[in-house]
Amino acid sequence: MNEKISEGEHLNKFLGDCEEIIDMLVRDEGRYVRIDFSRRDPTFRSLVGKAWDEARKSLRETMETIGNEHDRYADILHRYGLSGDQLKLKLHVFNAFLRRFRKKGSVIALKRLLAQMDTLLGSLSKAFSQLEQVLEIKETLENLTKAHTVPEELPNEIQPTKRPL
Q: Which residue, among 101, 127, 76, has the nearest Cα to 21 in the 3D structure?
């Protein structure tokens, strides 16, 4: 985590990344979201688009609040592990999975990334309840992603250290 950037800026970058990922899933036509929902169900396409438009407004309002009033929310962010080393750890892992997903583009990499998004979005939604909408859209889309059972390596940055016996 870049020390010159404030925690609020890091949180807003995370929320911007979330917006980008959810946008991709909302527009997906079968690569990640099961094809029966993504292409063949016009009701789903319409509903997910409208629901995401509503949730996106809440996400952007939260980003504005964090950008303008971070100090006002510092105590509550700290209470939910969204400051200091707690935040650094969560963002380090999220960014490692984000890089892996951008590099590989696999469903497994996406699922790991979405799971790590839960960690931060879950905490943020406790501090900013309007983010619950974003979390629920993400979870709905996550439930519709294709399931693969092929294991994928963890990003190098978070590989377990091998200890000598």
A: 101
